[in-house]
Amino acid sequence: QVQLVESGGGLVQAGDSLRLPCAASGLTFSRYAMGWFRQAPGREREFVARISWSGTTYYADSVKGRFTISRDNAKNTVDLQMNNLKPEDTAMYYCAASFNAGQTQPNQYRYWGQGTQVTVSS
């Protein structure tokens, strides 16, 4: 059974930082591109960041320069380091896995974590 488990969310103040780890199991982790998405109430799921099997990264414009995605294939983990958080970053954050690289659409990711809530107060 494939499982992706995010953690690290919480309530923070604008300007603070959070690190969201995602632990994967049940899949050959190194063969998958890993992505982070977020979804605020009443809004569609939004692409945040992606990292390929080889470490190539891509970010949404809204988080570029503030967020960093990384992976450790030996540990089957992917992290999202979020710096200088803003109230508009408030959302449920989801870790996702895709067998194909370079994907930014939610429907191109097969496996999803349960989500972790990030709330940023002003």
Q: What are its keywords?
A:
four-stranded antiparallel β-sheet; 49% strand; single chain; 122 residues; 11 strands
Order of helices and strands: EEEEEEEEEEE
Radius of gyration: 13 Å
Largest sheet: 7 strands, mixed
State the helix count. Answer: 0
What's the β-strand tally?
11
Extract low-pLDDT stretches.
none
- What is the share of helical residues? under 10%
**What is the overall pLDDT average?**
95
Structural class: mainly beta
Overall geometric form: globular
Beginning-to-end CA distance, first to last residue: 40 Å
Our estimate of the beta-strand percent is over 45%
What's this entry about, in short?
This protein has strands at 3-6, 10-13, 18-25, 33-39, 46-51, 57-59, 67-72, 77-82, 91-98, 111-112, 116-121.
Describe the protein in words.
By secondary structure, the chain is mostly beta strands. Strand 7 (67-72) and strand 8 form a beta hairpin. The protein has strands at 3-6, 10-13, 18-25, 33-39, 46-51, 57-59, 67-72, 77-82, 91-98, 111-112, 116-121. The model has no long low-confidence stretch (mean pLDDT 95). The protein has no helices and eleven strands. The strands form two sheets. Strands 2, 4, 5, 6, 9, 10 and 11 form a seven-stranded mixed sheet that branches. A four-stranded antiparallel sheet has the order 1-3-8-7, with no helix packed on it.
